[in-house]
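User: Continuing from earlier, I have the next pair ready.

Assistant: Great, send them over.

User: Here they are, in order.

Assistant: Folding the first of the pair now:
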Amino acid sequence: MTQPNSGLQRLFSFLNSLLPVLLGIFLLFVIVQLCIDYGILRPAVESAAGTGPTIGADGVFEWDLLQVHDTPFVNGADASIKFVPEPPRAKVGFVQIVRTQDLYKPDRFYYPSDEKRGRSSNGWYVDRWDGALFPIFGMKNDCSEGTNVEIRNIATMIDRPYRPDRAPYLGVRWQAVVVPVPVPLAGQDFKEALKTKLGYYYWNWTVTKNGTLKDVNEGLARETLKDDIKNAFKKWWGTKGEVRCPPIERLTEK
């Protein structure tokens, strides 16, 4: 005769046999999660400078890491970039295109403003403040230089990008492509002049899920990024009319 609790006993015995397996799976999950949090493991997103052959440059880049910011408040890195065109140009400036990509969901991107989101392409957007007339990094709306750039026969810039040390900016990669371009002469349309690109230089830094800054990398950009950069330029010009230097309104006042 079957005992009334024999079915329960078999169930408990079966569950008890599974306990070591379940414990092992749980421990494995914890280990993997810790590795992800501390940057030991992470999903394969775009490598330091993309994939494929590098894009050539009509000149020489010099990139220098100035300072790393890894605090309970912000994460980021300061860098200086210099470009010497070959052959020489009368005036050269930089256009920088950036994006902040989620390491674990590579098709998710984060933006510091809705304006930048609206003119982005695959997460990339021209790195200029809302309301800027010109895409040249550090150029003011009156066509003068900002304090962090030199727009001359040799282009230089200092950038200090950072993101808050809190969600959603944990587990992200900040990326930038710097494009030196010939700056148009007075009265020349920027859109036409900036069709000439003198090179492409890539730099990035990564923030793990626990807020640690890692992997500050740089190098010549890869061919796979070229279409993204082209589309980011298109999105920028899609929000602007014809712009000249000096601005059109200043020309008409004279």
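And the other member of the pair:
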Amino acid sequence: MNDPHGNYSIKIEGSRVYAHADAPFNTEGISLFFDDLSHQVKHLDHWVLISSATADVGATPEAVNFYNDKLALLAQIGCVGAVATVPNRMLAHLIKKIYDASAIPQLTSDNPEEVESFVRALLAPYES
């Protein structure tokens, strides 16, 4: 087993879970992220993951596959959608590859209005 690689932060505001990454990840780093995320959202019935990343973020091929496998867990613990704001096309392509095989609705955009509209639409069925 390798030492975990990858730096991230998680912040929760209502039904919005903000995750920020700023370093490359390996499988062990992705595992730590998902463990931490699962723990922090356990009190939420439904939520949207809003991710941002710096240009330094990347992932090993094994970590990408592991992330794909973990996506099913997100839906099981209340994730109703995901948004990614990334600084370049390479990361946008990586995010698309990760979420294409997932049933979780996903948007990759750097347009704040588009992101807000997408998040509101995802959360609307759960708000009274």
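Worth noting for the second one:
The helical segments are 27-40, 61-76, 89-100, 112-123. The mean pLDDT is 88.
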